[in-house]
Amino acid sequence: MLSDQQFLSQLRSQSEAAMLLLVERFYAPIYRYLCRLTGDEQVAAELTQDSFLDAYTALPRLADDSNLSAWLYQIATNRARKHFRRQKLVRWLRLGPLTEPQQPCDEERMVQQDHVSRVLERMPNDYKTCLLLQVWGGLSCAEIGAAVGKSEDAVKMTLARARRRFRELYEEET
Questions:
Q1: CA gap 169, 68 in Å, rounded
Q2: Which of 28, 39, 55, 76 has the fewest CB neighbours in a 10 Å radius?
Q3: Of 78, 82, 76, the residue nearest 136 (C-alpha)
Q4: Is the dihedral of CA 166, 75, 145, 67 positive or negative?
Q5: Torsion of Cα atoms, 95 then 99 then 105 then 110, to 10°
Q6: What are the structural domains of the chain?
Q7: What is the C-alpha to C-alpha distance for residues 16 and 125, in angstroms, rounded to an integer?
Q8: 129 in Cβ contact with 37 (< 8 Å)
């Protein structure tokens, strides 16, 4: 088993084995994040592939103290932003499992999921991005900050505002 330092060193030298391990470890979470961000599986697949190509190109400049997860989410977020700028599209989210088979669920759960989806569509993009990275990406505030280019304190404030706004909109929705 490689230490983190050895793994980073191999990544910086663009070792094929290290890159394969990186893709194996992070492809699915990045893809799911981009699926929820774009609401389109095909676009998400393209953006995920482009994100890993960008990462491969940037590997030689990867710092010793880099957080790989936050770094990859930052690349994916930047790729999504470029896509939205090109498409002039402001559709960031579609809830629900996109790549996993649908489990039978009761009507109440479907109604709740529909409410959540509509609420998130009405929220500002920076709120949605931070919430998605925390809830579905499982990132800490520091990692989210690294991914979106904000300080940890700014992310905490954004998340607090996003949660408050989500509650307000959800109460309106129900």
A1: 34
A2: 28
A3: 76
A4: positive
A5: 20
A6: 1-94 (1.10.1740.10), 103-174 (1.10.10.10)
A7: 36
A8: yes
Residue 115: CB atoms within 10 Å: 16
119 to each of 103, 113, 137, 139, 155, how far by Cα in Å?
23, 10, 19, 22, 20
How high is the pLDDT of residue 98? Answer: 45
Write out pLDDT tens, residues 97-150.
444 444 445 677 777 777 877 888 888 888 988 988 888 778 889 989 988 889
* % of the chain surpassing 90 pLDDT: 30
The tokens describing 109, both together, are 């759960």
Identity (one letter) of the amino acid at 121?
E
